[in-house]
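Supplementary Methods. Inverse-folding protocol.

Structures were first reduced to a discrete structure-token string of length 108. This string, shown here, constituted the complete conditioning input.
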């Protein structure tokens, strides 16, 4: 019963944290679409990037999309690598497990 009460109390706190995180990221100065498009991008290219990112949607719709991205990580897109970021993350974890962990184990 104690665990159920704690989980029930954690849900509103997680909601508040998610709203604050989304709001703080949204308040960062500058246009993310213009930054991703580059300095030589035309207004049309910036509008295309803004459409792709969903920045032209209302704030509430972007927040819902943000929450869906937290729940379903398949919606994530790596702009650096142009796809889902899991292959890169998997390669990094494999490198960490094979190279770094043995060294740390020797130090203990």
């Amino acid at each position: 019963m104690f665990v159920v009460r704690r989980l029930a109390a954690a849900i509103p706190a997680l909601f508040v944290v998610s709203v604050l995180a989304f709001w703080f990221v949204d308040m960062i100065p500058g246009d993310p679409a213009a930054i991703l498009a580059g300095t030589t991008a035309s207004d049309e290219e910036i509008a295309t990037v803004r459409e792709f990112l969903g920045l032209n949607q209302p704030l509430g719709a972007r927040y819902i999309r943000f929450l869906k991205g937290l729940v379903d990580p398949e919606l994530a897109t790596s702009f650096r690598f142009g796809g889902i970021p899991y292959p890169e993350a998997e390669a990094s974890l494999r490198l960490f497990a094979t190279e770094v962990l043995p060294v740390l184990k020797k130090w203990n």
